[in-house]
Amino acid sequence: MIKLDPTNITRQVTEYLNEMKNIIKRGYLEECASPSPAINPFTGRRVTELFERGSALDETLLETLLTGTFSDMTSRYADLQDYIQTCGLVYYSSFKIHYELDKLGLPRTQRERERFRERYAARYSSSWFDRIKAAHPNYMENDEYFDAFTDAVEADLIKLNEGIGRIVNYSMLPDEQRHSIMNRMGVEVCPYCNRQYITQYHDGIKFKTTADLDHFYPKSVFMLLSLSLFNFVPSCHICNSRCKLAKGVEILYPYDRGFMDDARFKYVLAAGASIDSIIGGNTDFDIEIEMSGTGALHRILQNGVDMFKLEKLYQSHKECVREILYKKQAYGKAYQDDLQKLLEQMGLDQLTQHEMNLFQYGYTLDPEDFGKRPLSKLAYDVIRQM
Ligand SMILES: [Zn+2]
Description:
The protein has 17 helices and eight strands. Strands 1-2 form a two-stranded antiparallel sheet. A two-stranded antiparallel ribbon has the order 3-4. Helix 2 packs across helix 3. A hairpin with a 4-residue loop joins strand 3 and strand 4. The longest helix has 22 residues. By secondary structure, the protein is mainly alpha-helical. The chain has a domain of 126 residues. Bound molecules: zinc ion. Zinc ion binds next to helix 11.
């Protein structure tokens, strides 16, 4: 997983607000005038109040919702904090507890299971569902009680989202605007898998894209964030549809960080491999992902590897690794020194390390460039392993 530059988002704030603010306002005003206004089941108040300060629409809140970061939303607005917490409790609740304890390196005892469920409920706590939690005092004891608690919260969240959907709904984003957003982001390779190009092009009339616009927090659960710019992650179709839709598990948020040194690709020689295997003579090795860290970070890294099937899919890139191993061997230090001398004799500038890497491997090996070329993180890790 590759980090995305948040300025991809911030540079298009003005244009996005110009396009979208009035659309939301229209939905809000229609809902205000509705003879049967939607009610937030958690608070008993009208859903329109989520968007208000006093009794008028809060323009700053609306702008924050559309273009602010999630921490902007949760630190400034108590209702947004409660909403996101409530959605989080529901969305991530379908975990398999044994598997989660394994990822954390904890024993599968009843005590640890209860502690895990308690920590989970504390992490996603909100005064919105204190009443529901109080009605399920034994929620931590087993899966059945825990599911009954989260199902009850989900039932109210579904009703709330029906009301919110009249004001904020992804279907309100014009198709042309969706293409423009992705074009302005300039992301060239899927940040989740770093394997597929996602391409913008102009068909003679308007910009189009081959990418999917993934909602990091899925719009089906986090309806209120369905038009939030910082919730949009351009990704390849496979990562967005086949992998991501299926699961509600916590993964790295690409605008915060990528794998970097916490999860590294490495080649591991197969049984019977020879010296040829480490100088690019064959592909008698496996590709593995080695993760550092423990506890919560390790769990989130492992979730990303599992969700996008990275270790399995990367086995098909052994030829790329073999080629890198070969280039490392064939165009080593002596070769590079000769090349620099030749350039000097010809009166030309020496190559910088950046240019030498590009010449030698076809990658700059600069983490800033990981998003420009597929498999660049793989190349970076394998070269550093040698
Ligand atoms: Zn992908």
